């Protein structure tokens, strides 16, 4: 392992363990005591054996037995407490780290989130932290604990006889070396097993998500076929991994038998020359047997450390990605509706392709703009730029008279309300879905907005009213849309963006949505992306986009009267002509 990694681990430790130094200190105290007690007990056994052999009194033997039991029991309790403390400290640190990482990711640009799938993000925020959590919750406790115990045993044995001490130290070194050798052979086998499982799970996930499509298209048999394939693959890998585990066990067993033989031989020799009592021979054998636990632990954790290091590396990579969009400092004017201005804006999601080309338009405060254009012409993109989800390539965008880069992002995004093509509902109560978890908004306001949108009946039909938990799926597209409108009403923004769904709603819902739209637009600046001409009957201006460029822009009335305008043609042929 490189030196840099060591420093990174040290930094990580101090960052996440310092705040809980009291718990860490307690943990250290308990660990030291536990190890001390574990080292003490064999001494009692020696006393017992030697006393018994010398024909000592029954009383001293019984006392020795009771003390032995007492120390043993106390040692177990102490170990229990220290393992609890270790897990506690470890998981607190891990959760903190996971939280920090999630927070960091949420602040990254939209372009970052488009490039990374949700599955990948789960793996990075949770999977990588899980690898590191082991570092916190087990590595420290077990490796430090094991090292201390190992050192303690070697010291105590050396105090009895330095020759056995030296021999066992050599044995420990050889064992660690052999363990690592075998582990290195085993790790790829274990990794292969984990990969097999992860393929199985992602197979499940994909097929379950697409279950409706699969059923309707008769893909079940094919899916089962593929499933058997993946399953068979997992079977092979799992069996291999299990056998490998057994082999490692055996190797460790043989190694240990050798260690014990070494101690026994030396102990008996020392007994014969009169340097050891029989109790001392037993003592060193007992200590030698105690070496096995920490040895296995250390070699296992060395491998875990490699996994943690990979996790740490990827977490650091993630932290190095910073939002490219720098926050502004200026606040927007609070009172009036806000105007919008695009000046020669050119933008592309990727460097080589421009989605918007030299787009310029102005929308006065309080006016509404109907935005039309073929699918893929860049309508939604314009609205994303207003939220400053992306940085434009050239040109200028102004909101409320201020250059968009100067405006505080929070302020900007709070002032714009949007109802999009797909409404994201959370697995939370209706109230939380409407207020987006803002507890400041009173129930009275929520209910009056619901009333305004004609949703009262629907709310009353729910088992727990506003406290009903939405499962996300059990709603029609129309209901979800109406909830999205209610959200925007509660936010009370100065600018409203409506990205209309192209899916058809039933006439009654459509009417309710239309009237919701009219109410929402009053006194606000608005952009309405329409897939139905009905929606843009009431707007002040019309803009037609074609392939990222403005094809036509003007007052609706003027365009209607001009028979040559694109909009007039659309009114004659119907919007479907264009959007299909
Ligand atoms: N996140 C993205 N990353 C890369 N390209 C994108 C992204 N979003 C949209 N595009 C591309 O940008 C172009 C414009 O997309 P946009 O969503 O603005 O179209 P639209 O006019 O809203 O279409 P629709 O009527 O289908 O909603 C399309 O060619 C699309 O493929
Ligand atoms: Mg769109």
Question: CATH superfamily of the domain at 340-425 and 475-579, please?
Answer: P-loop containing nucleotide triphosphate hydrolases
End-to-end separation in angstroms reads 59 Å
Taking strands numbered 1, 2, ... along the chain, how are they ordered across the largest sheet?
6-7-8-3-9-10
- Characterize the quaternary organization of these chains: single chain
Question: Would you kindly provide a brief summary of this structure?
Answer:
Helix content is 66%, strand content 10%. It contains 20 helices and ten strands. Strands 6-7-8-3-9-10 form a six-stranded mixed beta sheet, sandwiched between helices. A four-stranded antiparallel beta sheet has the order 2-1-4-5, covered by helices on one side.
Descriptive notes:
There is one protein chain. With 580 residues, the chain is α/β, with parallel strands linked by helices. The chain has a domain at 340-425 and 475-579: Rossmann fold, CATH 3.40.50. It contains 20 helices and ten strands. The protein has helices at 3-17, 21-53, 58-106, 110-115, 118-160, 162-209, 211-216, 220-272, 278-290, 292-320, 379-386, 409-415, 430-435, 443-452, 456-461, 477-491, 507-521, 556-561, 566-573, 576-579; strands at 340-347, 356-363, 368-373, 394-399, 402-403, 416-419, 495-499, 525-529, 541-546, 549-555. A six-stranded mixed sheet has the order 6-7-8-3-9-10, with helices on both faces. Strands 2-1-4-5 form a four-stranded antiparallel sheet, with helices on one face. A hairpin with an 8-residue loop joins strand 1 and strand 2. Helix 5 packs antiparallel against helix 9 (278-290). The mean pLDDT is 86. Residues 114, 349, 355, 373, 375-381 line the site of adenosine-5'-triphosphate.
